[in-house]
Amino acid sequence: MAPTHLLLAALAASASALILPGTEKFARTVANLDITNRGYVRVDSEAPTVEHPRAAPVLEARALRKALDGALEDASWTRAVSVLGSTGSIGTQTLDFARARPDRFSVVALCAGSNYALLAEQVAEFKDQVKVVGISDASKLGLLKEALAANGATDGSSFEVVGGDDAATACATAREADVVVTGVVGCAGLVPTVAAIEAGKDIALANKETLIAGGPAILPLLEKHGVAMTPADSEHSAIFQALQGVPPGAMRKVILTASGGAFRDFDAEELMRKCLEEPEWVRAKATTHPNWDMGAKITVDSATMMNKGLEVIEAHYLFGADYDDIDVVVHPQSIVHSAIETQDNSVIAQLGWPDMRLPLLYSVAWPHRVRMPRDQWEPRFDLVKLGSMTFKGPDNDKYPCIGLAYAAGRVGGTMTGALNAANEQANEMFREGAFDYLDIPKAIEAAMENHKSDFIAKPSLQDIIDVDLWARQNVKDFADAKKKILA
Q1: pTM of the model
Q2: Which residues form the DXP reductoisomerase C-terminal domain (predicted)?
């Protein structure tokens, strides 16, 4: 058998040859771009901060006014919420808020993928508020209607029930909704999010593809329709919270913290040896997070630190930070959820026990701070109980996925969507046993190289969806090439 390093080199070269036909829409700088694992270079200089368009309502005069006006609203303020992905973790936590504070939150639309039984229970609970109900799996529409009747949800209630491809969009554009929680996974969340923006609904962003893949198409729509997009994940919420009251031009740097994932205590050489000698041990380790129990996909992304690379791209689109002004810092305790540095060298951070409910609540309630019943929340944060925290820079040799994300982000356009889709496919195939751990960055890098031939700098929504599908197939082709080499 060939030495492993030669095998990986041959595999990468073979996969790079799998370029599918495409149009000549790329700029010379993209065609000649060296997509390597060295895309992350920490930059500390006195160069002027470069600002870009941003999705989040911060760092602009009108955003400051909107936050102030909202915070000074009459005490009777309320939010009517549409929940996309209501049966998932984001959706069920959103409904927890509505239960705990019905004086603040009402639920006017609910949409699920296929879990008709839980959806029917949710509709029955909020039947006096709900106006639109959706289930994206059209084959479950009949079962949903039966379950609604069995749960008494249709007694004296008046709401529309929609199934299939239009279900999420119908819920996202419900007339009564003030804010839409986008808890839908994958590019399936793009179309309803666009529809919600065009309908003038604020967005509590829990679907990462909206900006990572769709940023070039989404930002102009937010500007056109004057819609607020508030982040629901902990890192970007921390940045968003730290930026409240910060005037235009005052942010110098974004500091994204990372747990470090399953391999944070291994050096690059030791991890490489484990990958070569004990690949199944590595697979088991990569699917187990050292801090908490998460979904399988995000756990592997945490192990490769691609999750942080994707968050770098999202931070760029949310806050208008240049990639040279976004740092990644490994913080194993996950207490500092992220921070910003201002032009006067002040660093403003958001701290707390790890709890996804806080950023989700703030994304829906912004700019308000909502007090929750004590039994609905984690114990209050205590610095004395915490004791100490540690920080270190990421090992770029151990985490090549971070560099790939920076490289894709700097290119922009459809390259970030290609990166994201290739990662999702490679991650899935790794978990299924079709890939080894080292194949993940190799497959992503090959997809990025191949995508140069049909890169689009200013894509439409359909372009973004097409690239997503193409990148997934490219990774499958990579796997087929590997099989042929090993045969």
Answers
A1: 0.90
A2: 351-473
